[in-house]
Amino acid sequence: MARLEAARLQLVAESDLNRTELLHDLAAWQRHAREAVTPLRRISALVTSAARVAALFSVARRVFRRRVGDERSMLAIFFDTAKAALSLWPMVRANRR
Q: Could you tell me which of 60, 66, 65, 69 has the C-alpha nearest to residue 91?
């Protein structure tokens, strides 16, 4: 009976040791994952900003593009500007978050 009790205690101790090692490994994995995600977030923010600037220039080009002999009325320019502003609204709104 004492042998069984000793074996049981040994298994419990081994289980505790394995649990502790698993927790240390999990903490190390989380640390590495955090370290890997930080540069990716910076790159993502940079790419998003570049895309927003490109969209801004694209919309501005569309609004202010003038062809030779193209006489647009002030009302047409107003509506083109309003359309451009509405198309940029999601970008501006996303920037606030």
A: 60
Q: With contact defined as beta carbons under 8 Å apart, do 60 and 84 qualify?
A: yes
Query: pLDDT, tens digit, for every residue of 2-48?
Result: 898 999 999 999 999 999 999 999 999 999 998 888 888 888 888 88
How far apart are the C-alpha atoms of 82 and 74, rounded to whole Å? 12
Contact 92, 55 (CB under 8 A): no
Contact assessment for residue 80 and residue 60, using Cβ atoms and an 8 Å cutoff: no
Q: How do the domains of the chain map onto residue ranges?
A: 2-96
Q: How far apart are CA 38 and CA 24, in angstroms?
A: 22
